[in-house]
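Handout, tutorial session.
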Amino acid sequence: MRIVTRIALVLVIIGALNWGLIGLFQFDLVATLFGGQASILSRVVYTLVGISGIVSLGILFETNDATDSDVEHSRFSNPNYGTEFGEEPDFTEQRDAARRRSDDDTML
């Protein structure tokens, strides 16, 4: 994911949390931190959150190919997790040898 997209996503999350606080508790965290809704700093934060929302619209319409290209696939090119679909070692020779030994022991 590009760095601009990550920053935009963080700002959108901050804006969403701020709107949640406004909706639930009538408390505007940004205005409280930066000196009221009309202060320059608050307006800059509100503007950046709005621009981040526009940038984040691109995430909504991205295809999976675009998001998968950022992942480094070389580390995961051939994972062997030993699942039920993988090859299992053949222990039939050891089992047969153990049976022959136990059969020999029972004959004595």
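The second record follows below. Compare its token runs with those of the first.
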Amino acid sequence: MAVYVDDMQAPFGNMIMCHMWADSDDELLAMVDKIGVQRKWIQGHPTLSFGKHKRASWVHFDIAQSKRAQAVKHGAIETDRVGPMEHTAKLMIAKGKEIGNADLVAWGEKKLAMVSDYRASRNG
């Protein structure tokens, strides 16, 4: 189980933001408590998110770079800009296998292939 931060750098007011997500809600919430991010800013959670944040496609927080540094200090794993896509693809595959939905598994595998192709093009 792990918490992840990507290397996205999106301006928001006077801050530069990135994403933070985890293998479980408990891990994610424990990390935001450690680094001082308010839980109310969770996105994509069916019960904890509010307003437009509820419609996010995956459970995560947008955090400032200063909070990212703290998360890494507390053990978060650094990943690239396609880390969230890789994470959601793995969730899709697991869910598809759990419920016996081959189309969901195939879509997740297609997304993982896209991640692999992107990374190969950046490192090649």
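Points raised in discussion: The mean pLDDT is 95.
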